[in-house]
Amino acid sequence: MSAGVPFLDLRRQQEAVRPEIERALAAVLDAGHYILGGEVAAFEAEFAAFAGARFAVGVASGTDALELSLIACGIGRGDEVVTVANAGAPTICAILAAGATPVLADVDPVTLTLDPASAEACITPRTRALLPVHLYGQCADMAALAALATTRGLRLIEDCAQAHGARFRGASAGSIGDTGCFSFYPTKNLGAIGDGGLVVTNDEALAASLRELRMYGESAPRHTTRPRGRNSRLDEMQAALLRVKLRRLAAWNERRRAIADAYGAAFAGLPLTLPAPNREREHVYHLYVVRSSGRDALRARLRERGVDTLIHYERPVHRHEAFRGLDPAPRALSVSERAAAEVLSLPLYPELSDAEVDTVIRAVREAC
Ligand SMILES: Cc1ncc(COP(=O)(O)O)c(C=O)c1O
User: Fold this and answer.
1) pLDDT tens for residues 266-285?
2) DSSP character for 3?
3) Ligand 1 mutation pick, 93, 183, 310, max ligand atoms within 8 A of CB
4) Residue of the nearest CA to atom 7 in ligand 1?
5) Contact status, residue 114 vs residue 140, Cβ threshold 8 Å
6) pTM reported for the whole predicted model
7) Which member of 166, 210, 280, 283 has the lowest number of beta carbons within 10 Å of its beta carbon?
């Protein structure tokens, strides 16, 4: 009987860079400037370069990044935003918090990201934006969605919370739409030790608006305020730590891909649907999600073999009590519904040892 494999162990990543993180945090303490100081400004510049965008604006969370993007785009009450049902609650919460109405489209059966044809069918005279989620670390079909947004005069807002460093035809996630919204929730590919988020954009006016919105709506230097501002700032401590980790992110994503390749090779031929990486859509494997018609039994057999798994996500959002009102026509989201019954996330993170990878492989092969 081999040792168990935890689904995720965040302490391992902190340990790998602990001396550098401690120096960075000590420097913030010593600097005595704790909100919107040099660390946030430097991190914004470094992350913008990483994501291939002109501007980056640090905010308090990924949910705020989405909500403030919508508000900066002038979207609110009476407006509809087309998005997906299979990516959990935060995206929906952000749209509702902006005052707009989420309209749920179905997803592509291979990548489980927003299906452009289904999105198009959702467009009404009130639609103002498309909001694809780059689920599990792989981009949605940004060529088709960008073309649709342009033809129909819609904003395109990318939810990149799970896709730091992912690419679509060479372009970084977040750099294609009007804005790209990132989360630094601790489990993400680039994770803080608390909450944090950031918006990237190539639009100078949107960047200026976002800077105002995160700071009570104040516009420098005149201290005039615009409506709907609030306090939503990335703080210096998180920014200092994120700068240390950003320097490792490409290597960590590479390790994720190597583990995914090992899983892919070992699981070929098993009765599982595997993630479908392709050259056009460089995957960063925030999650390694397989699909099985016998998902719950498979999960139980993996647990018996010491392998922890999770389900992302158990129910499409319109099956949440709070969001029942969003339920589209019956059966309209058949791909999202079926995926919810079949998806299973296996352990995959850069600090997984080769022995643990082998344990997962052996367990899955035995359990299938
Ligand atoms: C797809 C998606 N969108 C948005 C968010 C929200 O990010 P945060 O938790 O930083 O608010 C998350 C993460 O939790 C997410 O996975």
Assistant:
1) 999 999 999 998 889 999 99
2) P
3) 183
4) 62
5) yes
6) 0.97
7) 280
